[in-house]
Amino acid sequence: MKHGTRPVAFLTRRHTDAVESAFVEQFDVSLNVGDVPRTAQELQQALHHCDVLVPTVSDQLDDVIFQHAPYRATLIASVGVGTNHIDLNAAERAGIAVTNTPDVLTDDTADIAIALMLMATRRLGEGERLVRSGGWHGLAPTHHLGHAVRGRTLGIVGYGRIGRAVAHRARAFGMRILWIGRPGSHTPPDREMAASLDELLASSDIVSLHAPATPDTQQLMNAARLAQMRAGAILVNTARGSLVDETALAALLASGHLFAAGLDVHQHEPVISPALLTLENVVLLPHLGSATVETRTAMGLRALENALQWLAGTRPRDRIV
Ligand code: DGY
Fold first, then answer.
1. Closest ligand 1 atom, CA of 101?
2. Where are the domains of the chain?
3. How many Cβ atoms from other residues are within 10 Å of residue 311's Cβ?
4. In what order do the strands lie in the sheet with 176-180?
5. Using one digit for the tens of pLDDT, what is the confidence trace for 159-190?
6. Top-level CATH class of 106-284?
7. Any catalytic annotation for residue 287?
8. Which residues of the chain have pLDDT under 70?
9. What CATH fold (topology level) applies to the domain 8-104+293-311?
10. Ligand 1 within 6 A of 105 CB?
11. What is the pTM of this model?
12. Active-site residue 240, yes or no?
């Protein structure tokens, strides 16, 4: 960055007015007025022309993007907590630091997990579709029955910030909690901690995923593990689609082994597995975990804070590499 000139930030997508205005105050900003997803080539070009790239979790920053170093950009201030869309090693080799935006989306994401849990157990998506289709002919005692969550066991896979926030909410619904931490996490055991994933799957009526996408969690819920879930159980995923074998999940939902599933994230976003689309007993959301005005604003402002700390020569609070 030349002395005396304003730094340049490249925002790959539109953000809330509060976020865009705050960036405009501090940077020469390239805004994506049409909000069209950027191509790999555009992202690579942006690294040549800006000081700070501000992507979202749907911008894929693979190693190929980083192959033409050196770049002008020295920081990727990603808006989102997950960093699986960025090849962190390749960014580091290209001399680019990376930050994310943890904490600020914990509550909203936990709320969506609970919403999916209730939608799936009470068949709310099906009910909504029934009403809109004109097929509802009034209350009948045996129609459209779901299950109660009170007294059920919720198995939480990944007991970080979001997993704990889900547990907190679920206790208020009268649920029993079981959890396991992610491999390598140092959470001290307590009475609710499951001995193993096998134990958690065998004992839970609802399994909710909150582990990040890493090589260790790739297809964590593969066909064998999904089949290990209790008959009539429910799977909720607000973490990442790569954790679940969607083909196997669709088969177990279709056979009735699993009662239902609630998915906010998908293996090949924005493409939804065709096998899942045909099923009534799966709730499909378009990655809405952090989608509130308040949280998306907090996320964007946190990315800005990281960028300003970086440009001021201090370590950004959310630096990953
Ligand atoms: C994240 O930040 O990783 C979320 O998935 C976006 O809501």
1. 2
2. 8-104+293-311, 106-284
3. 18
4. 176-180, 153-157, 206-209, 233-237, 258-263, 282-284
5. 999 999 999 999 999 999 999 997 666 677 78
6. alpha beta
7. yes
8. 1-4, 183-186
9. Rossmann fold (3.40.50)
10. yes
11. 0.96
12. yes
